[in-house]
Amino acid sequence: MNPERFFTYLEYNEYINELFQQEKTTGDNHSESMLNYTKLNLHRIKRLDKTLKIDDVVRDKIETISEPHEWWVITEAWCGDAAQNVPVLNKMAELNDNIRLKLILRDENLEIMDKYLTNGGRSIPKLIIKASGKSEKTWGPRPADLQKLVVANKNNANPVPYSEFSKTVQQWYNTDKGLSVQQEVLELLGL
User: Fold this and answer.
1) Distance between CA atoms of 67 and 97, rounded to whole angstroms?
2) Which of 41, 48, 64, 123 has its CA 20 to 30 A from that of 82?
3) Where along the chain do its domains lie?
4) Is there a contact between 23 and 34 (Cβ–Cβ < 8 Å)?
């Protein structure tokens, strides 16, 4: 099954910028809050594209991949976790010509998304690694240590409201600097 439309990383960024200029975002919800999330995410993506560094060990191991890989990432422009993680996945994929990164929009491809649920939910971003002759491997929607924090907050009798908890998530990402994603994808690849 192929998605309606794949994007390269560059095409995805151009598309979400174009939508934002039209006061829209990806998906069907173009509310003020969704536009605000998208605006914030556009800034995050731009910052990460400029400042993100791939760890030297990760670089060396990714460069050893000798067979073709397709990395599909299910995403949306308004998703904060996608804005933090997709740039990392892109920088990793750029290290090796054998890796083709393809982005697809969740809400336009629910049939695909529903094959890769996280605890029954359509959580994104979701990375699906397809390597020739090997079974698919998946990662997402966020690094394992952060996922534990998110789940603990949701399961708390008095969870911290999203407006406050999102600050904790942002601080976690700022401190981590994409290293957890890099290490977890290496583990997934068996490198």
Assistant:
1) 10
2) 64
3) 9-189
4) no
Q: What is the pLDDT of residue 5?
A: 83
Which 8-state DSSP code applies to residue 63? T
Cβ(69)–Cβ(101) below 8 Å? no
Question: Parallel, antiparallel, or unpaired for β 137-139 and 126-131?
Answer: antiparallel
What whole-number distance in Å separates Cα of residue 128 and Cα of residue 37? Answer: 25
119-176, pLDDT tens digit by residue? Answer: 899 999 999 999 987 779 999 999 999 999 999 999 999 999 988 999 999 999 999 9
The tens digit of pLDDT for each residue in 26-75 reads: 999 999 999 999 999 999 999 999 999 999 999 999 999 999 999 999 99
- Spell out the alpha helix ranges (H) of the chain: 9-21, 32-51, 56-62, 80-93, 110-113, 144-155, 162-176, 179-189
HSE-CB for 145 with a 13 A CA cutoff? 12
End-to-end CA distance of the chain: 28
Sign of the dihedral through C-alpha 166, 171, 177, 178: negative
CATH number for the domain formed by residue range(s) 9-189: 3.40.30.10
CA distance 144 to 187: 12
CA–CA distance, 97 with 94 (Å, rounded to integer): 7
